[in-house]
Structure formats: C-alpha cells, structure tokens
Amino acid sequence: MKRQIYTQLLKWKESRHRKPLMLYGARQVGKTYTLKEFARNEFDNMVYINCYKNPAMQTLFAEDKDIKRILLGLSALSGQTISPHKTCIFIDEVQEIPDVVAALKYFCEDAPEYVVVAAGSLLGVMNMESTSFPTGKVDIMHMFPMNFSEFLEALGEKPLADLLADDQQHGTVNSLLPRYVELLRQYYFAGGMPEAVMEFIESRTPERVRKIQLDILAAYDADIAKHAGADTIKARLIFESIPSQLAKENKKFIFGALKKGARAAEYENAIQWLSDAGLVYKVPRLSKVAIPLKFYMEKDVFKLFLLDVGLLGAMAQIPPSAMLIGNNVFSDYKGAFTENYTLTQITCIPDCLTGYYSKDNSTMEIDFIVQCGSHLLPIEVKAEENVKSKSLRQFVTVDANDAGLRGMRFSMKGYISQDWMDNIPLFAVYQTLENISKQQ
C-alpha cells in the first residue's frame, strides 16, 4: 500500500545534509513495510536486521563504536555486501538495544556515506540512561496510521482522493457527496492501521477486521505492561477511559472519571508515556489564540484522543453493523468519532500544531485551533448536517475580530463559503489542511 511518507523518504535520500534516519511511530502503523519498500526500490541492496531477541546485535554494539568494525559485523550477520551510498542499512526494533541508537551518532560523524535507517515501536519511551541519545546527529520522521486519502488509494479510489486535493474541483466533489460519505463511513470502521485496512479490502468481512483491531489493542496493552513501569496501572486506566471521555459533551479530560479524587499530578507521567508511545494524542487548551500556539498551551487542561478511529470503535465495542450501515456513526456517540477522526487527519500533516479554546465563564468552545505554518485556523467539527456554528461565529466575528481570522467548519455538508467561514466536507480534512500548510 502506498504511503505518503514515501515522498518524505525520497527527499531525505537526496538531501546533501542527510543523517541517519530514525522513524518514530506506534506499533502496527506500517513502519517496517514502508522502509523495506523504500530500501528495495531506491537502493541496490538492503541489509535488514531486527534487534528483537538478537543477542548478536547486542554484542556487536555493546563494544566500542568503531564503525568499520560494526559495518563488518552487520555484513556478516546479514550475508550482504554493504556499499557506501548504494546499500540501505535498515535496523528495526532499535528500542530493544539502546546502544544501536547511540551508535547512530558515529555513523553520522565518521561514516556519512553509509545510508542508515532505524525504526522502532516505542522510540519515544526508550530508556537511554546508560547511553546517550544522538541529539542533532539523526534525522527524525514520524509515521501515523493511514489517513483518509491513503485509505482511498488503498481501496483503488485514487481519482476520488485526487479530486479532494484539487481546490478547483469543489463543485465536482459536492456532486459526489454520497459516495464520499459512504467511503468515510467505511474508514470510521476500518480505520488506518494497515493490517486492518488490508483485511477490509481483501475479505470485506467486518469480523476479521475487528479481530485484527482487538489484537492490536492487546499488543498495546502488553507494551504498557512491559514498558510503563510504575505507571502501568495508571496508563491502562487512562487508555481504557478514552472512549467514555470522548463520549461526553465536553470532551475535556476529567481525572475524576478515572478514580474518585484523582488529580492531574498523579497521572501526568502516565499520560506523557502514552503520548510518547504514540498511542494517544494530547490537545491542550489555549489561554490565548495567537501565533505561536506553543506559548499559550495550558499544561493541565486538555483533551485526549486515540491514534486511530478504527481502534476507537473496537475499544468502545460498537457493533460493526452500527458503523457500516446508516449514518449512526456520524450522529451518535456525541461526535466522539468525528472529533477523533478530524484530529488524526490533522496530526498526519507535518509542522501543524493543534490546541483548542474555551472560556471558563462561557459555554463557547472552539474544537480545534490549528497553526499550519503562518496560518491560524479556528476549526469547528460537526458530525451531522445540522451545522449551526454559534461558538465559531462568536469567536471569529466578535472575540477575535481584530485578528482577521477566518473560521473553518468540517461537517457532513459540501463546500460552502460564507463571509466569515468556509464549510469543508469532513472527508476533505487532510487534503484541505495539507494544501494550506504548503502556502506561505
């Protein structure tokens, strides 16, 4: 399946300032498959070595960091000739051997002519206490579950994806609204985990897709138990609470829902662990809507979303029929799926920051405030065609009138422009914001 990160990998390959690459991403998002395809297609040969339960790699990297010795060892382990510029050395599951990560510094400094890529499921939570992370000596990319555009291409619907990417085709897209809605409904169920998407395409059997999703969730639970240490119980409580937290009208994360009397300070480390592992996305409240958003992000008030909308359905144990038949998945569950879906599409776009805005003394809330490059976008998300936008209108035309912001509403309606706001179809979230991010 074609992934959009492949384009970023090509740019990395051609860069004159290329460093060893570390690809971050949660388990099962497609890191290994994509890097193998990249290495096979773009280089003369690939040396692939997995660090999981690999004592030979542990020994090889535990000694000195002499790159000539390490290259000789990698060649012996793989049975492959390693040539500068022509061979891609792919070291997988590097979180199992921190010494491998530390050694990337020496590839950068002493042997930049060798192409090295590294991937792992829990790079964000690696314990590097006995070694040092090669800060400034590696290039880093993040990989996420498949967005809706990638899902369309996997289904053989590339022309529909291309229409969404073309700002001149809004009328055509509006005429195809029912078809897009049907495909979006399928995406809400299947989600963007590649194995689940492939099963959905090949078998069209919802029960098999759901089984894969539940297996992935079980693997995440095992990772939490194995790696979260003293925060294991708290991390599990937080992770399991996400469906019920999102089902509330006000989706601000409530610690009291975890345990009576629970306080933010008790769960701060566990939330950070889940975020670093890529399992949840944390969207902080903003004290002020202005660039740069980082200046105004509050620490203890936030929303938590799951990394994939398909996994959200599996966690909530919603029957596949309720998601695939009719529009209940859009209208029910108080918009939980729609906001989670929207956030996952935004997260796929490099260099976009996301927060949300609300007032303590008011019911006004803006679902997302997104900083895309130099653009600041107040966004409202609507799960249905009932698109009253009282909060968004109040914010754009009154509260932030001097800022000259233009509202953006994602809903089940087609493209509509008003003097203060643009309505964008929900299925066009990714392409719309990606186009904006490319503008100066």
Task: Please describe what this structure looks like.
The protein is α/β, with parallel strands linked by helices and 440 residues long. The chain is built from 19 helices and 13 strands. A six-stranded mixed beta sheet has the order 8-9-10-11-13-12, sandwiched between helices. Strands 2-3-4-1-5 form a five-stranded parallel beta sheet, sandwiched between helices. Strands 6-7 form a two-stranded antiparallel ribbon. Strand 9 and strand 10 (375-381) form a beta hairpin. The longest helix has 22 residues, at 206-227. It is globular and about 65 Å long.
Low-confidence stretches: none
Largest sheet: 6 strands, mixed
- Supply the number of helical segments: 19
Query: Strand content of the residues, in percent?
Result: 15-25%
The radius of gyration is 23 Å
Structural class: alpha/beta
> Could you give the distance between the termini?
31 Å
| Mean pLDDT, all residues | 94
Amount of helix: 40-55%
Oligomer: single chain
Shape: globular
Give the strand order, joined by hyphens, for the main sheet.
8-9-10-11-13-12
Give the number of DSSP strands: 13
